[in-house]
Structures are given as structure tokens and as C-alpha cells.
TrEMBL record:
<dbReference type="InterPro" id="IPR006620">
    <property type="entry name" value="Pro_4_hyd_alph"/>
</dbReference>
<keyword id="KW-0223">Dioxygenase</keyword>
<keyword id="KW-0560">Oxidoreductase</keyword>
<keyword id="KW-0408">Iron</keyword>
<dbReference type="GO" id="GO:0004656">
    <property type="term" value="F:procollagen-proline 4-dioxygenase activity"/>
</dbReference>
<dbReference type="InterPro" id="IPR045054">
    <property type="entry name" value="P4HA-like"/>
</dbReference>
<dbReference type="InterPro" id="IPR005123">
    <property type="entry name" value="Oxoglu/Fe-dep_dioxygenase_dom"/>
</dbReference>
<protein>
    <submittedName>
        <fullName>Prolyl 4-hydroxylase</fullName>
        <ecNumber>1.14.11.2</ecNumber>
    </submittedName>
</protein>
<dbReference type="InterPro" id="IPR044862">
    <property type="entry name" value="Pro_4_hyd_alph_FE2OG_OXY"/>
</dbReference>
<dbReference type="Pfam" id="PF13640">
    <property type="entry name" value="2OG-FeII_Oxy_3"/>
</dbReference>
<keyword id="KW-0847">Vitamin C</keyword>
<feature type="domain" description="Fe2OG dioxygenase">
    <location>
        <begin position="106"/>
        <end position="209"/>
    </location>
</feature>
<keyword id="KW-0479">Metal-binding</keyword>
Amino acid sequence: MLTSTLEKNIFEHQGSKIKIEQQEVQIIARYEQPLVVVLDHVLTNEECDRLITLSQNRLARSKIGASKHVNDIRTSSSMFFDENENEFIGEIEQRISALMCVPVEHGEGIQILHYAPEQQFKAHHDYFVETSRAAANNRISTLIMYLNDVEEGGETLFPELNLSISPRKGMGVYFEYFYNDSLLNKQTLHAGMPVVKGEKWVATQWMRRKPYRV
Ligand SMILES: O=C(O)CCC(=O)C(=O)O
Ligand SMILES: [Fe+2]
């Protein structure tokens, strides 16, 4: 039977709605193994706008010039909020923690990414290679939240699953890679496709296997 081979997920929510405090997050679609969940109403429009405003003048441009090679994995600009840096960020972190079924202490700071036209995040895994020091407390799951509507392009693509998600403000995509079967983890390979028109803003939460915050 197919179900006998299914591994246990971190994400425990069933059905189509997840009520967290005042927010009613909706499950739009699920890809079962590896688990990829498309979510709506993760953030309100006001929260999306505020995350953009708060991060705007703290973005650092990725290195260009000498290092501008075709193999530059990420060409967007980014920043991290400090963990629980203010009440607003703290509330968002609590919601994300409940949504991801992982205690807030396992979370890295929320990362903001900004893509201008032609910028992209080439196919990658979010977890660290086994031989790296960071792998001692590796990442286990990701939530990508879209902070604006992109005019054209900027899809999140899972090439090994033939799955593509078009960014829409307030929506999110969740996936996990803590399976015993390393092939399933590898299949969470994903990319932020080049923005064609307009710009793209995302917020990303990565969760670690063990508490990460000091
Ligand atoms: O921008 C995207 O769609 C992908 C972002 C991403 O892969 C990440 O933040 O780890
Ligand atoms: Fe990623």
C-alpha cells in the first residue's frame, strides 16, 4: 500500500484552514512527498507592506562586478530581521512557528529578498551539505511568503517535482526536507525564477532541527 511508505511530516495540519489567533490561513494545494504546501492569507496586505517598508533601507546588494558570473546563484538583495526584533516581527514569527509546527526558538531571523527584473535565485537546496559545520543543526523546513504581486516571472519552481508557484501577495509556499529518505530531501530543489516585469519581494523563514536562538 502506498501509505505504508509515507514518512511522517513535520507539518501536521489537515483540511483546508488553519486558524492562528486572528489569522485564517488557507491551504490551496499540497504535493505530498516531499511535502510542499501552497498557502493563502499567511500575511495580510498591511503586514506585507510593513515588512517591505521596514526592510527597504536595510537591503544589501549581492556582490556584482568582479563576481558577476553566470554561476552567481543569487542575484537579489537581502536582509535579515533580528529575532523578535520588535512586537510586529515577534507576532509574525509566532504565527509562522504555529503554521510550521516548529517552536519559534528553532527559527532563524526572517529573511527579506528583493528581486529586480532579471534577478533570480538559481536552483538550490535550503539545507546545508552534511560536511558543513552548519549541518550540525541543519535546516529542516522553509516557508516562503510573497509580499507583492509580480507582473511577470518570479515563480518559485521545484524542477524535480514539475511544480511552479506564481507569487501572489500574502500567499506562501511551505516545504520540508527532514525525511529519512535523502532522495525526498533532494527533491525539494527549488529556484526563484527570473523576474521578467515588475519586482518581487519575499520573506523566508528557515527552521532548524534544534533550538537555534541563544
Ligand atoms: O524567491 C523565491 O521564490 C525562492 C526563495 C528561496 O528559495 C529562499 O529564500 O530560500
Ligand atoms: Fe530556497
